[in-house]
Amino acid sequence: MPPEIDESWVEKAIDRYRRIESLRDEFDRAARATEVTVRSSDGLVEVVVTAAGEVTEVRVVGSLHGRGNRDLSVSLTTTIAAAADAARWARDKLRAETFADYPPLGEP
């Protein structure tokens, strides 16, 4: 005799899967739309990055007077690294907000 199938459990599992897919799509859209701007500690450059990690803009906002190529390179490198950290922070925050009301597995 074949095992009995709990149709109610199957329906709940399908509903949960659809809800997860919907939340994941919502999260992905929000991550692409959320931008964070990071400014270098020397005030020379700004980097704009999405929560998805895409650098969308790099701006030189400070004066280059008296600064060499090395100064600009260091400022860009450190600010891009800080922007990557800011993107991770924003993504983690979005994830917590998006999935906050979603019950962990095993709970109704």
Structure description:
The protein contains two helices and three strands; from the N terminus they run αβββα. Helix content is 53%, strand content 16%. The chain is α+β, with helices and mostly antiparallel strands and 108 residues long.
How are the secondary structure elements laid out?
Blueprint: H1 7-33, E1 35-39, E2 45-50, E3 55-60, H2 69-98
Antiparallel strand pairs: 1-2, 2-3
Helix pairs in contact: 1-2
Strand proportion, as a percent range, falls in 15-25%
Q: What structural class results from the helix and strand content?
A: alpha+beta
Number of strands: 3
Outline the biggest β-sheet: 3 strands, antiparallel
- The tally of helices reads 2
Gap from first CA to last CA: 30 Å
**Overall 3D shape:** rod-shaped
Q: Give the % helix.
A: 40-55%
H and E string = HEEEH
Concise overview:
The protein is an alpha+beta fold. The chain has helices at 7-33, 69-98, and strands at 35-39, 45-50, 55-60.
Note the main attributes of this structure.
108 residues, alpha+beta, three-stranded antiparallel beta sheet, 3 strands, 16% strand, rod-shaped
